[in-house]
Design goal:
By secondary structure, this protein is α/β, with parallel strands linked by helices. The chain folds into 3 domains: about 260 residues, HUPs (Rossmann fold), CATH 3.40.50; about 120 residues, Anticodon-binding domain of a subclass of class I aminoacyl-tRNA synthetases (Four Helix Bundle (Hemerythrin (Met), subunit A), Up-down Bundle), CATH 1.20.120.640; about 50 residues, no CATH class. About 50% of the residues lie in helices and about 15% in strands.
Amino acid sequence: MALRLYDSLSRTVRPLEPADPPVVRVYGCGPTIYGRAHIGNFRTFIAYDVLHRYLEWKGYEPRFVVNLTDVDDKTIEGAARAGTDLGSFTAPHGEAFLADAATLGIRPFFDTPRATEHVDEMVEWIRRLEEKGLAYRAEDGSVYFRISAFPEYGRLSGNRADGETGRSRIDADEYDKDDVRDFVLWKAARDADRAVGAVWDSPWGEGRPGWHLECSVLSVGALGETLDLHLGGEDLLFPHHENEIAQSQGATGHIFARAWMHTKHLRVEGQKMSKSLGNVYSVPELVERGHAPAAIRHLMISAQYRKELNFTFDGLEGSARAVQRLVALHRRLHDETTVDDAAEPAGLAPAAEAALEAFEAALDDDLNSSEALAALFGFLRDVNTSLDRTGGRARSDELEAARDALASMDRVFGLLELAMADDAVDDDLATWVEQKIADRKQARADKDWARADAIRDELTERGIVLEDTPQGTRWSQG
């Protein structure tokens, strides 16, 4: 089966066709490092990670590059407010992004270039665009891309920026230009830029690169003139990605990206994220509230990347329970099932085969993580039902098939690897829990239901989840 993705340029779901398989050259727009990334940002970055992992699962060799924007209006304003230079201001925010990404199980990227490290290449790009008549210098020393000289402008978004919507999105530059549609490639230095060290020399005078140009130069510099796949949030489709296409293809003469993938926005409790509503959450804030990283990740992948995700705290609690069910299955398959090669087949191998087939079919269908999760949890249900029927006994070959299938699916979702790392239990707690379970068992045998319920409540207060099965009571940390 072939992986098919919705291509925003052709507006069709079509097979991924890398130019040089098994290598896949992927570029994703990363964060602007002027503050802590929030869960809306990480909805997109976790979608990147699921794709990254699935490409590896399918046998590809992804070269996955995500940039860090460390010079633009927001970073300069932030450095000025902090009374420090640009590099000192952005460095800890870049480190925080990478730390939060690791907390959520996002694999390290092939490269995470920063814009300030490649300004010389950006100057050279602008020179090339000037030579081709695609760029011009304004009186103040800024340089602009001339959209009228690039007839293909607007193919990605369908917005040629000549209507009121287009004007409202791009008429924000504080610099002179010939046409309101044109976008800045090089911004002439202002006093605020000089104050934080955000200025570089160029043939047009001191200044700094425009934001759109940064992504073109960083992606092509890392991956070559034509990308196999370009990623980003839906808010970047216009004008950012439209501008990337114009300046990239204008400079190189080659197709910039063979396909485009855009992630839908996230809402919080049914509302748009807004500081005024107090619903903009960072990863550390959620973890501080007691929400496990694996639960956050599960909720983020519970909806397919092109569908709006409603992030709710009830949903987060449900995700925590779902992850614990996975942990319980992992333990049952590795620690609690008795190997009995003389036993009748429990049906684990056929369940594993069917689950993997459904899992792959779902992800091949435009990375449908929701349907792939359904395949995973259907497998969980089938395995538990089979083992309950056999009294927790299974043949070694069946048990190995079930273990392999669970591990295989988790290579893409990354839920168990996060949960198991976060689920470490010290020996004293384990001893206490086991004693409480034994006390509860005795209370139930004595028909002392009030005491049995009280013990369960005590365990629940300590974050211990009990599951009563025909083979006994299993527990996990919730």
